[in-house]
Amino acid sequence: MSVDKLSLVVFSGEFERVHYALAMAAGAAASNRAVTLFFTMGAARALVDWRALPGAERDRDLAQRGVAGFEELLEACVALGVTVMVCEMGLRALGIAAHDLRPDVPVTAGGIVSFLADASADGAMLFL
Question: In which region does residue 32 sit, left (phi positive, over 0), alpha (psi from -120 to 50) or beta (all else)?
């Protein structure tokens, strides 16, 4: 565990919030900071089919303006070693099975206790 670790709780299922969480995670990881993204509740849907998130139609507009799109940011997070954790309780609440999640994203299963144990006491924790 890194002292200056960034722990992001991604609980909103809105495209804009999930997109920004990915951007923050990729930026922090590119700056050699350890990062964990904790997807729960509505945000967990982004790891099944992000195109179904409210506001997802903005992805094309962002790309046309030179802003990294959802896929690009998610791929960067994976390549940069960001830990992606999905809340087991959130998956159960949404009726999503672990095998329904994207196979190209290494996911660490866990819950609130696992996420808190992973977080650094001296790091930052943000809710998006």
Answer: left
CA 73 to CA 61: how far, in whole Å?
Answer: 15
Confidence of residue 92 (pLDDT cuts 50, 70, 90): very high
Q: 9: exposed, middle or buried (C-beta count within 10 Å: 0-12, 13-18, 19+)?
A: buried
pLDDT at res. 2:
53
Q: How many structural domains comprise the chain?
A: 1
CATH number at residue 12: 3.40.1260.10
What is the distance between the alpha carbons of residues 63 and 41, in angstroms, rounded to a whole number?
27
Cα(98)–Cα(81) distance, rounded to whole angstroms? 20
pTM over 0.85: yes
